[in-house]
Amino acid sequence: MVHAIDWIEDDGGAAVRIIDQTVLPQEEVHLDLRTVDALVDAIQRLAVRGAPALGAAGGFGVALAERQGAREDWSPAELDAAIERVALARPTAVNLEWGARRVDAVRRAGGDALAEARTIAAEDEAANRELSRHGADWLLARTGKSTLRAITHCNTGALATTAWGTAYGVLKELHQRGALELVYVDETRPLLQGTRLTSWELAQDGIPHVVQVDGAASSTILRGLVDFAVIGADRIAANGDSANKIGSVALALAAQRAGIPFLVAAPMSTVDVTLASGDLIEIEERDESEVLAVGGTAMSAPGVRGFNPAFDVTPHDLIGGIVTERGVVEPTRTQPAFPSH
Ligand code: MRU
């Protein structure tokens, strides 16, 4: 299984090692990030991405800042500022700040930052495997079918996590049970996480799939070509409203109309009970050039402006189930979905 993020120590010292997701699947390049600047840059240009992987990046980022600070003789204030930059490098996935704050609390108490970051990574893999079993059970029970056709959006596999995957993990679990017929993969404009990353992972796992343009998603659902939709999440509010990659809400609307299950799969580290509802979730807006150009070539007339929200929020009443390592909650029936951690 591919590792999106690791900690290494070699002759050059300590580094956060990532697989550069901006060049996949054409090139498999590993980057060793040895400074906070390099890590923050990698997070912001999505070389490492996906909420749970960002949780690990936040955790390892604190250990990296600690090492760099010792090497460069930083003051305590400089170290705090560096950790803050890691925690806030991207705003929507709560896991990033959660991972950084959790490891920073251990560091401040005189504990082992690196060991805590490794624990976050290990816990994430265990949570993903557990939620995948719950999710597969729920889908088979809900649909009453023994083989299922799926639609998914963005990338939620090993690349987006520390291992196994979330929504992708549910698909993999169904595949291993012989219960998955075909996956419709949304390309996921503008950065093509579906085309480039999810289809790469599905091919490696031998899971039958087709890639479609994002605009096909609702029609694929309404034509009855799939039995369920499953997506990941970047932040889930206490009432179950779920932020995920832009385009997700279209699947939820169509799934409700078609009467098929719409499942959100995420570890508890993605649940933010400090926010009562999804309208409080900060949505990252990225540079307009990602929308207006394809592969570096401008597609629109000079001077045209772009709008590039990276995420949307699916209201909880459109969500059939939210599966975490603790099981499935059905936010349409349970209010609030997550009363406390
Ligand atoms: O902008 P990205 O690629 O970091 O967005 C990722 C997603 O939206 C994923 O679906 C989400 O983080 C869940 S990853 C298991």
UniProtKB/TrEMBL annotation:
Keywords: Amino-acid biosynthesis, Isomerase, Methionine biosynthesis
Entry annotation: catalytic residues: D234
Site features described as Transition state stabilizer, chain residue numbers: C154
The reaction(s) this protein catalyses: 5-(methylsulfanyl)-alpha-D-ribose 1-phosphate = 5-(methylsulfanyl)-D-ribulose 1-phosphate
EC number: 5.3.1.23
Listed pathway(s): Amino-acid biosynthesis; L-methionine biosynthesis via salvage pathway; L-methionine from S-methyl-5-thio-alpha-D-ribose 1-phosphate: step 1/6
Sites where the protein binds substrate: R49, G50, A51, R90, Q193, N244, K245
Any one GO molecular-function label of the UniProt entry: S-methyl-5-thioribose-1-phosphate isomerase activity
Family from the record: Belongs to the EIF-2B alpha/beta/delta subunits family. MtnA subfamily.
Presence of the UniProt keyword Electron transport in the record: no
Function recorded in the entry: Catalyzes the interconversion of methylthioribose-1-phosphate (MTR-1-P) into methylthioribulose-1-phosphate (MTRu-1-P).
Protein name per Swiss-Prot or TrEMBL: Methylthioribose-1-phosphate isomerase
Keyword Isomerase (UniProt): yes
Enzyme class: isomerase
